[in-house]
Amino acid sequence: MPRATLEAVERAAWLRLFEDGIWDIALGLLLFGFGLSVLTGMTAVVAGGIAAGLVAVGEIKRRVAEPRIGRVRFKARRRRQLGGVSWLLALLSLTGVLVFLFLLWTTRGSAPPWAIAIRDHFLIVIGLIWGGAAAFGGWWLGVRRFAVYGAMIAAALIAADLGGGLSFATALLACGGAIAFSGTTLLLRFLRRYPRRSAGDDDA
Amino acid sequence: MPETGEPLRIEIDRIIHEPARLLLVAHLYVIESADYVFLMQSTGLTWGNLSSHLSKLEEAGYVALEKDFVDRKPHTMVTLTDAGRAAFDAYRRQMKQLFEDLP
């Protein structure tokens, strides 16, 4: 069997892990939650919901996806790729804290003009960071649709900053809703394509 | 290449050469291990076929079956052994050699 075909076999097995759309739904709900918290001011409730949802993702994958596509352990290179996503999320959280501290600093009278200029366009900064992170994650994992999500997030937040008829909250709600919808479509297709299997099933 | 008209003998590993087993070994070659459900979905084999082919591969020492319990249900992970990996490498070389000189 030529090398290219073996690579295709491995890639198909890898991409099956992302076919269920559960990570898409999680990302969509995360953005939607942020949007809701900005819109309603109920930050604590929404943050709690987001945290619980992220913790639940692993359990949902185990209960929904594993009985349908089975369990697989990939080689070290792929495991490093999955580990890299945790680093990316940690880096994103740190960046969020740094952006918050930066914004706090610019409210003081001593902030230089360049810092105030950045503060005035902080949606562009956030859009580039979040959109870039989603796109980088997609490239890193080889799942291209996340690059599209990244471009969408960046475009929506830049449009909101430039006064394109969107506020910060509506940009987040629109992006989150669209990504969650895309994930739900993938999940429904996944459920149809992969029926639940158990030992002795012989109707394949 | 012999210059007599004797029939040529081609040394092909018949355990791996069977199409369904070739597909199974190819999958196990590129990942570390997988359970029956994953292999069924990846190869399109039925449970019975998969079980029978894995038994043959296990008898040849090409795969190892690791049994444990997940949610109190029996669960089996399948891994390609070093012997299986070497046999697949040898099979790839043999097939490449066989077709290399075709006009």
Descriptors:
heterodimer; A: 204 residues; mainly alpha; 8 helices; B: alpha+beta; Arc Repressor Mutant, subunit A; three-stranded antiparallel beta sheet; 5 helices; 3 strands; 54% helix; 18% strand; elongated
Provide structural commentary:
- The complex is a heterodimer of chains A (204) and B (103).
- Chain A is mainly alpha-helical and 204 residues long.
- Chain A has one domain (3-193).
- Helices cover 79% and strands 1% of the residues of chain A.
- Chain A contains eight helices and one strand; from the N terminus they run H-H-H-E-H-H-H-H-H.
- Chain A has helices at 3-16, 22-40, 43-69, 76-106, 113-120, 122-141, 145-161, 168-193, and one strand at 72-73.
- In chain A, helix 2 packs antiparallel against helix 3.
- Chain B is of the alpha+beta class and 103 residues long.
- Chain B has a single domain (14-98), classed as Orthogonal Bundle (Arc Repressor Mutant, subunit A).
- Chain B has helices at residues 14-17, 19-30, 36-43, 47-59, 82-100, and strands at residues 33-35, 63-70, 73-80.
- A three-stranded antiparallel sheet of chain B has the order 1-3-2.
- In chain B, strand 2 (63-70) and strand 3 (73-80) form a beta hairpin.
- The longest helix of chain B is centred in the last third of the chain and has 19 residues, at 82-100.
- The chains are: A mainly alpha (204), B alpha+beta (103).
Summarize the structure.
Chain A is mostly helical and 204 residues long.
